[in-house]
Design a protein that fits this description.
single chain; Phosphoribosyl-aminoimidazole Synthetase, Chain A, domain 2; 32% helix; globular; EC 6.3.3.1; purine biosynthesis; ATP binding
Amino acid sequence: MSLYKESGVDIEEGYRSVSMIKEHAKRTQIPGVLNSIGSFAGMFELGQYKNPVIVSGTDGVGTKLEIAIRMKKYDTVGIDCVAMCVNDILCHGAKPIFFLDYIGCGKLEAEVAADLVKGVSEGCLQSNCALLGGETAEMPGFYKHGDYDIAGFAVGVVEKDEIIDGSDIENGDILIGIESSGVHSNGYSLVRKLIPDINIDFNGAPIGETLLTPTRIYVKPVLDILQKVKVRGMAHITGGGFIENIPRMFKKNQRAVINKASYKVPAIFKYLMECGVKEEEMYNTYNMGIGYIMCVAKEDAAKVMSLLKEYDLNSYEIGYVEEGEGVCLK
């Protein structure tokens, strides 16, 4: 066998894919980008910082991709990929500056790869960061034909004296919960087990459409708030739900007291409970309608919620901080 194509790798399709992807990446260029996709590495100039700290995070989309593949809808999961990374580094006050992605597949189809990167570029636009580069790997015999995987990592920057690490949190501080857009990108192994038929009706449309709603990106409103309010801690509610993620913002012997009745749990989570998941497990797996939490002094809570409203985001005073450990749901 002498031709790479005969082994299952189509170089020409790869070239076509790169050509299509470049157009999506070009949309995300921001000040600081020094070169374009096609070089061996991406370059970004930090600019004027007194004592910059680089903050990075990496993640993938997980088995939510299987729903995208079954629905043949590939242009939203890239948003999830970006969201999972930028929302994480945002928790420490970092401004995302660039993102790189990785796509793996068994048989490269340029249109599918371009749709995946279209979603990535949309996520970068929502985060005001640049898609600086990436990799598309065609691996026949490793991935099945039709299978795709996508992951990535974000790099952000924050002044060292502006890092948010939870050390300023005081007992009595208020927890502001910001609405999620749905299930986001966690717990889909359980979702797929509970809902094997993604075409069943849910609120007048196939439930798969609801399940593919992309993860909300909180970068722009949160960075705006950080310029106007002293935020003491933040948490991105991902895998592990309330129980695992909220305590990650604390550095001292503190716990979160959450009032479950402080907001309305979205219908998709109620449906999952009707499928047989206990409420306790739901709060230990899913975001339950709250995708991001900000911890502020009591006197700042109303201002934060007002600022979020300017971004058309619903937010709720969902609880407070007290001495202890973990999370108390009541």
